[in-house]
UniProtKB/TrEMBL annotation:
PANTHER family: TRANSCRIPTIONAL REGULATORY PROTEIN NARL-RELATED (PTHR43214:SF24), TWO-COMPONENT RESPONSE REGULATOR (PTHR43214). Residues 3-120 form the Response regulatory domain. The modification 4-aspartylphosphate is found at D54. Keywords: DNA-binding, Phosphoprotein, Transcription, Transcription regulation. Gene3D superfamilies: 3.40.50.2300. SMART domains: HTH_LUXR (SM00421), REC (SM00448). SUPFAM superfamilies: C-terminal effector domain of the bipartite response regulators, CheY-like. One of its GO terms (molecular function) is DNA binding. It comes from Glycomyces harbinensis. This is DNA-binding response regulator, NarL/FixJ family, contains REC and HTH domains. InterPro entries: CheY-like_superfamily, NreC/VraR/RcsB-like_REC, Sig_transdc_resp-reg_C-effctor, Sig_transdc_resp-reg_receiver, Tscrpt_reg_LuxR_C, WalR-like.
Amino acid sequence: MIKVLLVDDQAVVRAGFRVLLEDAGDIEVVGEASNGPAAVREAALLRPDVVCMDVRMPGGDGLAATRRIAEGGAEAPAVLVVTTFDLDDYVFGALEAGASGFILKDCEPDELIAAIRRLADGEGLVDQSVTRRVITEFARRRRSPEPEAGALEALTARETEIVLLLAQGMSNAEIAERLFVETSTVKSHLRRAMTKIGARDRVQTVVWAFQNGLVPQ
């Protein structure tokens, strides 16, 4: 069973999500929270696999909560930001803080369930309708911090190439077609690259690529 923590300031939203998710058969809602600080406490106590996180909540927003939860590293639950706005400042802040992806509140029920399953399996995601827009916006907003010492050098030429194509918005299948290799080969290179840079999933790998200057301006 995939254990999920629901975080939203509206009780009716949490109730609706609970019914929807528990009808999936392989998802168990283990807890709820109505603000960021409560989400951090419940995540530490309940140890869910995925946290469905609203971003705008009185009493403590989801951005700070996402950052606190993500500080747990590889053992931390994946945070799925569920938002009304696809290009919200809070969304970008949450991704930079360590969220594994985001999806829109008006998505189809099956899309939400599929997103939770992907995150539970270690796959990050961004809502497919806005993936390239999100990546473009990351590029526009990117600062120029000091790259992580040794991180870029640790990647092989092929790993660097695949991470760059991923950051450009390509799927594994599109990368495989571009490089004339099998999709499984792309996945293997990407897994090794993620291990080297300490990224938990594909989304955080894209964030890392922009933050460390791998993507040309």
